[in-house]
Structure formats: C-alpha cells, structure tokens
Specification:
- The protein is an alpha/beta fold and 413 residues long.
- The protein has 15 helices and twelve strands.
- The chain has an eight-stranded parallel β-barrel with strand order 3-4-5-6-7-10-11-12, surrounded by six helices. A two-stranded antiparallel sheet has the order 1-2. A two-stranded antiparallel sheet has the order 8-9.
- Helix 1 packs parallel to helix 10, helix 9 crosses helix 10 and helix 11 packs antiparallel against helix 15.
- Flavin mononucleotide binds next to strand 4.
Length: 413
C-alpha cells in the first residue's frame, strides 16, 4: 500500500480518543472535560484556544508551523524558531530565510534571542520597520553550557539590570507590536529568578510571560514544576502568564490551566512527530465541539510524514535537502510503531520523497497508534552543573555586559 500523498493534510480521524494517563505532573487527576478557559490576549491578538506552539530551534520553522496549523484549523499561536538578534541585524542569509512566514500565517510570531540591549533594540526596530512579524517573543531559557558559560540564555535573568535593559530596548522599539518573554525558573533551586523577572517584565511593558517550570540545572530532566507557574500567576497579576513544561496530550494542557490558573499553555516536545496534537488541543478546549479525534494509525502518520518532508523541500527550494532535514523527525513519528531497525534507518537516510514512499509502502500501515507512544518524547536528559562566568552569582544587580559569543551556538531553550 502506497502512502496517499495528497496535500494538504486534513484531520480525517474519527472522534473520540479517551484521555490518556501520563507521567506529567498531576497525572491521575480526573480527566478534563470542558475547560473553563478564556481566550488569551497577546496585545492586540486574541488567541483561541489559549495554546501556543513552543519555539523550538531547528523544528518550528514555517513548514512545521503550517503542518500544526493545518491540524488546528489555524487556531492558536505558532512561534518561530529562535532567531539571534545579531544575525538578524547583520542580515545573515540563513537567518533571513528562517524568518519566513507562510502568507496565511497570522499573527506572525517571531522569537528573538539576544544578550546586548542595543542589538536587541535594533533587531526589534528592524522587524517593525520592515513589517517582518506581528508579535515578538524573547528567549531567556537556553540552558546550554556554551551559552550559560558566557552569561547568556537562562543565566541572563540573574543579572536583573541587564534583563531590564534588554526588555526596555525591546519594548521601546516595538511600537505597537506586543513583546513577550519566555524563561525558566532560574539557574538552580538556590538561584531562582522567575518571580523577579516576571516583575521586571511588567515594569518594562512586556505583554505576557511564559514560564518553563524547570531550572537550567534540570535541563529536561525530572518533571516540570507546575506549582512555580501558579506562583508566577499569583505574583504577576497584571499580564497573562503562560505555562510550559510536560504537556504530552491535550488533557495535560487543560489540567495545567486548571492546576495553575495560567492564561495559556505553551506546548513543545509533545508535538514532535505529532503535529495533530494541535487538533486534539482545539477539540479539548472547544466546549460542545466534536471531541478529540481518534489517534492516527500508521498509514495516517506516514501521510503526515510525507507532507512534512514535502513542505520542508518547498521551503528550502530543494526536495533532497527537505527530505534530509526531515530525517531528524523520523524517530519521533515512528516512535512505538513496529517498524524494525532496518526500515527505520532507511527512512532516516532517505534523500527523496520517492525513497520515503518506497519505504512506507513496505511497512504495515494498518498498525494502530501505540498507546505507549503517548507521554514524554524528545529531549529528556537531566542537566549537570550549570556552567557560569566566574563570579556570576556574586551580585545580581551588577550591570553586566556580555560578549557576542553568548549569542552564538544557541540551541534554543
Ligand atoms: C529541540 C528543542 C529546541 C528548542 N528550542 C527553543 C528555542 O529556540 N527557544 C525557546 O525559548 N525554547 C526552546 N526550546 C524549549 C521549548 O520551547 C520548551 O520550553 C521546552 O521544551 C519545555 O516544554 P515541553 O515540555 O512542552 O517540551 C527547545 C526545546 C527543544 C526540545
């Protein structure tokens, strides 16, 4: 049986999938039915349901956002992968390609990462002057040692004055565009920064704050601390607070909102190889809607894989490079299915759509969705010691200035 390659993907799954238990916080709580949630306001933008695709470097490019939007019917907010401000103001060729939005994307949401207030201000001004986006998110969550070693990423909010200067420049140059921030709880349990950062964000005119409920020291290990999201919600009452961390299925999103009182959720790893999660999320939030669609069988999954690879090729302008870029998604899409190591390897080394089709045709496409494929996926590694510049923790109010290399080699959040 050959994969049906008709584009675009429409969600043909039938209702209704039962709520699944997960390892995420509060699992075991009663399955959510109709959530009591209002629309999320991000400045002039109304987001319904209050669901945001987390920025993920190397993943949430225009093709992946298109795929997720096809499943959600365009509902929700879909943030670009992280763009470094220096590369943007220097008009780096790759960066200019990364900031591409599909013509149907609205609002266009871009995530920036920068460590120098002046450069951040220039990047924001460029976005406004050249009408490159409708919403700007700033990333303060990267835990990667190469970055924290220079004081960047999730180490940066520890220096309150530097954080404040960056936010002031961003908001000051943003005109009518809303600026939001995304951060972790802090460096480690002894150096939590999120409550101060939330307060500074309000004082500097930031529109909303998102909290990934882990410290940098945790990387992706353990479980996200949803209580911290609730604490931030109580602390920062003036603007919307978005919760992030360990939403593996639609029911987790509803439970996070109920458990924390947050105004919206940010969904990352749960949608890796599962872009239809956004269809499930819409169904979970829309009272009286059709209910959650059934989990896809492998035939349906391969059609989504095909579409994803095809979209990447169109975006890159080269089918082979699109299929090569798609390779990293293969383990996520095939997780839990009976595929076999040879076929898995062949899929992950294909360099044309025809090769993908050939591999799909040889597989059992009637396999149902493997229940154990729900739950954690993507990065789960715990962190080690957070590497910081010498003396970084001595004075949170020191007026720190970082070097450019705190902005290079970032791999997201
Ligand atoms: C592959 C990958 C890339 C990421 N890139 C970014 C990024 O560019 N910007 C950012 O703020 N966070 C980034 N993150 C962090 C996610 O946005 C999110 O905060 C984190 O995965 C926790 O949410 P989750 O439990 O829903 O995955 C990345 C995460 C992963 C797994």
């Amino acid at each position: 049986m050959t994969a049906d390659t008709t584009a675009p993907v429409t969600d043909t799954r039938t209702p209704a999938v039962p709520a699944t238990g997960t390892d995420s916080p509060a699992a075991g709580a009663p399955a959510a039915t109709a959530p009591a949630a209002g629309a999320l306001r991000i400045g002039p933008h109304t987001v319904w349901p209050p669901v945001v695709l987390a920025p993920m470097a190397g993943i949430t490019n225009a093709p992946f956002r298109t795929l997720c939007r096809e499943f959600s019917g365009g509902k929700g907010l879909f943030v670009s992968e992280m763009i470094t401000t220096r590369a943007l103001v220097e008009r780096n060729e790759k960066t200019m390609h990364l900031i591409h939005f599909d013509a149907t994307e609205t609002p266009r949401s871009i995530q920036l990462y920068g460590v120098d207030p002046v450069t951040v201000g220039k990047a924001v001004r460029m976005i406004v002057d050249e009408d490159l986006a409708d919403h700007i998110d700033l990333n303060f969550g990267c835990p990667v040692p190469k970055v924290t070693r220079k004081g960047g990423g999730s180490a940066l909010p520890f220096k309150r004055n530097l954080l404040r200067s960056i936010l002031r420049e961003a908001v000051g140059n943003a005109g009518d565009l809303p600026v939001t921030i995304k951060m972790r709880k802090g460096i480690d349990d002894d150096h939590l920064t999120y409550l101060d950062a939330g307060r500074i964000a309000v004082e500097e005119g930031v529109t909303a704050v998102a909290l990934h409920g882990r410290t940098a020291a945790q990387h992706y290990g353990g479980t996200a601390d949803w209580d911290a999201i609730a604490r931030l919600r109580d602390h920062v009452t003036e603007i919307p607070v978005l919760g992030n961390g360990d939403i593996w299925c639609a029911d987790d999103a509803v439970r996070m909102m109920r458990a924390t009182g947050c105004d919206g959720v940010v969904v990352g790893r749960g949608c890796l190889g599962r872009p239809w999660l956004f269809g499930d999320l819409v169904a979970a939030f829309e009272e009286g809607g059709p209910g959650a669609p059934a989990a896809p069988d492998f035939g349906q999954v391969t059609r989504v894989m095909r579409r994803h690879a095809e979209l990447l090729g169109e975006w890159i302008g080269d089918e082979a490079r699109g299929v090569i870029d798609f390779r990293k998604h293969v383990p996520w899409y095939t997780k839990g299915f009976s595929v076999g190591s040879d076929a898995r390897r062949a899929l992950a080394t294909a360099s044309s759509l025809a090769e993908l089709d050939e591999q799909f045709a040889a597989l059992d496409l009637t396999q149902p969705w493997p229940a154990h494929a729900d739950g954690p996926r993507g990065r789960t590694a715990p962190g080690k010691r957070v590497v910081l510049p010498d003396g970084w923790l001595n004075d949170p109010y020191e007026c720190a200035a970082l070097t450019e290399d705190a902005e290079s080699d970032t791999s997201g959040g």
